[in-house]
Design brief:
11 strands; 39% strand
Length: 168
């Protein structure tokens, strides 16, 4: 059985190759997160990304402030992203490989972790608390950030961590 680091490297290589074969430009890749990592896709490809991962959802219907940021999230088995929310974005997640666990709540009290299967989608409103949880196997999600402030688009600094397993 390969160790987790080699599994992670192999999976990241596989996801990168799949994205390139699908014609996507990877704007940023971060495999160093303690819970897994992510790929940021060129924003100009938001509709192509929606066509590929969100059953052709029209991105114009998703635009709140004009910008959308497509991403792929990779979560390791038995790892959790922080219990968090955002001031300047809403998010839409679609499970590509799973199942994965997702907890949501309107308050800082974490809700129950629910299992989402491949093809299932969840819409997270601006300010809604949420957490992605890796279950038995590696999970992969397609994610679209819906920027809610046109003058100050969301970024990695727009994460309010209510609880974090990694002390961030």
């Amino acid at each position: 059985m390969p160790d987790t680091d080699s599994q992670k490297r192999a999976l990241f290589h596989q996801v990168a190759e799949t994205l390139k074969q699908q014609g996507f430009t990877i704007a940023k890749e971060d495999p160093t997160r303690p819970w897994g990592g992510f790929f940021v896709i060129d924003e100009a490809q938001a509709q192509k990304f929606a066509n590929t991962y969100f059953d052709g959802l029209l991105v114009d219907s998703l635009r709140i402030s004009g910008r959308l940021s497509p991403k792929i999230l990779v979560v390791a088995p038995h790892q959790r992203l922080s219990w968090q929310y955002h001031h300047r974005r809403a998010e839409i997640w679609q499970v590509v490989q799973g199942p994965v666990g997702v907890a949501t709540s309107e308050t800082d009290e974490q809700g129950e972790v629910k299992s989402l299967q491949v093809g299932e989608r969840i819409i997270l409103r601006q300010g809604e608390r949420h957490r992605l949880v890796g279950l038995k196997d590696w999970g992969i999600l397609a994610e679209i950030w819906q920027h809610t402030d046109a003058d100050n688009p969301s970024d990695e600094d727009d994460i309010v961590r209510v609880q974090d397993d990694f002390g961030r």
